[in-house]
Amino acid sequence: MEKIIIDEAQFMRTISRISHEIIEKHETLNDIVIVGIKRRGAEIAELIKRKISDLTGSQLPSIDLDITFYRDDLEYAEPNSQSPVYNGSSDYISVQGKTVILVDDVLFTGRTIRAALDALVDFGRASKVELVIFVDRGHRELPIRADYVGKNVPTSRAEKVQVRTMKFDSCYEVALIS
Q: Where's the Phosphoribosyltransferase domain (predicted)?
């Protein structure tokens, strides 16, 4: 069974609210880099980047981060199985001394964020990393929390939260699947 918990209008309002919160929290946007975790986190990061640009005129540097080989749940590929596909990051931007706004779609156990933090080190030592999560569903296995949350959705472990974006799903919405 599927229930739409965020429709397109709510989705865009959430992007706007998070963008405003980021602007309000920082005196200047000069040292900020937006990093979206591939796949849907990167698309959400792009929406936030565009909204911040619309509101302030600032063009923030950004990258899309592929964390495939930094995951701790990546199984070694068997000879006849399909190996994971690593697409790399979109560009190389040094984050040395910058404030990184790390963006992902769903925060669950925290393991994806741990992997992203490991991958981020390849781009330099950021002065600070802030986390944007579109949906926080709980059930953390690691001590990770978001600085900006679109929506908190209490779930059971059996339920799934699916954030849908235009590029991958031809719509903007969030579904709760039980």
A: 9-153
CA distances (Å), origin 155, targets 115, 130, 136, 158, 175: 23, 24, 9, 8, 12
Tokens at residue 176, please?
A: 């709760």
- Whether residue 73 contacts residue 111, with contact meaning beta carbons closer than 8 Å, is answered with yes
Rounded percentage of the chain residues whose pLDDT exceeds 70: 90
**What's the rounded Cα separation, in Å, for the pair 52 and 13?**
13
Domain that residue 98 falls in: 2-22+29-69+92-177
Q: Which residue has the tokens 């005129």?
A: 57
pLDDT tens track for 127-167: 999 999 999 999 999 999 999 999 999 999 999 999 999 99
Which domain CATH number covers 10? Answer: 3.40.50.2020
Per the domain annotation, does 78 fall within a domain? Answer: no
Identify the residue whose tokens are 């963008």. 19
